[in-house]
# Entry
Amino acid sequence: MGALEGRTAMVTGASRGIGRAICLRLAAAGASIAGLDIELDQLAETGELVREKGTEFLSIEADVSSLQQMQKAVERTTERFGSLDVMVNNAGITRDNLLIRMSQEDWQKVISINLTGVFNGVKAVSRVMMRQKSGSIISISSVVGLVGNAGQANYAASKAGVIGLTKAAARELARREVRVNAVAPGYITTRMTERLPEESRKALRAQIPLQRLGEPEDVANAVLFLASDASRYLTGQVISVDGGMAM
Ligand code: NAP
# Structure
């Protein structure tokens, strides 16, 4: 029997990259998945791959920066599956620029998806999980939220914010057996990093003790651990999956 047999997980930003890998990993452990993305048709492939693992997939179109849409998404999920045991706040974007050139619009856009989006996800599921007296909330931060990065003031602030939010929520929800943790990936091969020129990728590898970029599955494995009872005594923690970049 899989570690998540009979449980339900919601994953935001489920159509590609790390979000898709998380859906597949949790499905392989037996969880039914509610996959959420800003565009419904983008979710079709993830849905097919999840069903091949033998579990159910519910596609939900929602923008994480809207609390109302997130609340609706949670309602639909509990109506369909009867419970919501795992919430993975994964959706995120970048709008990079040096601080002196960064527009207020690019600052705001990143904060509203990467940080307010996580707030909305945590808030939308916490009532259900508190009532259940069980649940695991996992938010995807970044090594950049721990150590900063030139050209990513908005992104670094949003990802550091996710860590503070995780710790505050962990303290608030612990009494109801709801655990709240974060995963801080380093550089992972997805659309987000594919855009980098080879020269920059080379420079990146030089900063990574394990000397290679990570795969989405590396992040998904840490998420599975936090989602399952194997981590039942962990809350308010940040697990770095970064080849040793931040230590
Ligand atoms: P990605 O390939 O760009 O995927 C991001 C996903 O989020 C896409 O499915 C995207 O949908 C969705 N999304 C964007 N805005 C949304 C919104 N407002 N509401 C709902 N969904 C939205 O990115 P990734 O590399 O897999 O990153 C996943 C998470 O890991 C992000 O939080 C990212 O910051 C974090 N992370 C990534 C790395 C890395 O090296 N890749 C490192 C550290 C942390 P569309 O495709 O339809 O736009």
Remarks:
- The first strand starts at residue 8 and ends at 12.
